[in-house]
Amino acid sequence: MKNKLKRLLALFLMMAFVLLSGCQQTNEDNMDESVSADTEDNSIDVGSEDTDVIAEIESIDKSVEYAYSDKIFDRSATEGRFACYYFRSNYIRPKPIGNSSTGDAALLIAPDGTTMLIDFNMAPATAHVVSYLQRLGINKLDYVMASHTDMDHCGGYNALLEYIEVEHIYISDSPSYKTTNHKAGRFVAKAVEKGASYTILKAGMEIDFGGVNMKVLWPTPDMEWPASPTAVEVNDASLVVKFTYGKSSFLFSGDINSAQEIELAEMYGDELQADVLKMNHHGSKTSNSQKWLKTVNPKLTCGMAGAVSSSEVLERYMYMDIPFTLSVLDGATVVSTDGDGVYDVQVEKEREDTYFGVLPTTDGYFQIK
Ligand SMILES: [Zn+2]
């Protein structure tokens, strides 16, 4: 009986995968490789792209936009708590850049109100990020962290810095941040020009984030940075950062690939355990290894993706009994906690059934313990 159910489930997964991937152009294998290397960065017309994006911000809230609940914008529900917002990023441009409209952007609000944005997506989608921030009443960010130098994580800096005041940025020691030949370097230069200061994060550092402990786990201080990194090397150099608030914990690890996940699992063991995990690399099958998931042992995983990258990965989450939210299915997700290991979760949109299982929700709300 159980096997029959599994087969039925697999069939649903396949159907959903075809439905979801058929209408969008995102492809896991080249999702952000095409925009990773320094040499290819120049293929994008940065100026006109960001001008387009800034123009779009003005109209975004008036557009079709919300068949989505606006409950996630209720700040009173998370006030005085540690809250993480995993933003929806499935904004599809009429003229996509390359083949990707996918990226990460997550907002953290500490119990004392201190704010941090981890990644801000690529230029076409940063309009959404700015829109979310504005609707949450945030015009100034205390911290902005770039997990790594790929465009789908820190590409839309012009739009971000145009609309949002940024106090301090967190980056890794990647050489790409030090040259304006690379978009990541232009992000740093522009932020500094606008008055932001910055810190280079390295494993071993522990920083207080408004009452929440932020511990950097990767890259290590002795990391050797290749002069011309491959797309895989860029992803594997993502900052891995754990936030601990009382008994509650959240892990962010950018786009690290499975080999890097396994290395970290061996290096840190139980220290990697975190209740809420940001799904690696938009749910790609080159990440999200079983060993990683067993070691982190999350109670909930939140993924940000413009399309389902791999039904296999989502199946793995289901078989390992790890609930997940994914922005393409659920819209944005907000997870908040008092530090007691109990998490209130609000999604923007209730998931249609048969799509990778259904989370038990009432108006997009559920609790994880
Ligand atoms: Zn990415």
- Tally of individual domains: 1
* Overall pLDDT level: 83
CATH architecture: 4-Layer Sandwich
The level 1 CATH classification is Alpha Beta
Can you offer a commentary on this structure?
- This protein has 369 residues and is α/β, with parallel strands linked by helices.
- It has a single domain, classed as Metallo-beta-lactamase, Chain A.
- It is built from twelve helices and 16 strands.
- The strands form two sheets. Strands 6-5-4-3-2-1-14-15-16 form a nine-stranded mixed beta sheet.
- Strand 5 (165-171), helix 7 and strand 6 form a beta-alpha-beta unit.
- Helix 4 (123-135) packs parallel to helix 6 (157-163).
- It is globular.
- It starts with a helix and ends with a strand.
- Mean pLDDT is 83; it is low at 1-49 and 93-101.
- Residues 32, 103-104, 150, 152-153, 255, 281-282 line the site of zinc ion (ZN).
Please give a handful of descriptors for the protein shown:
369 residues, alpha/beta, Metallo-beta-lactamase, Chain A, 9-stranded mixed beta sheet, 16 strands, 21% strand, globular, disordered N terminus, binds zinc ion
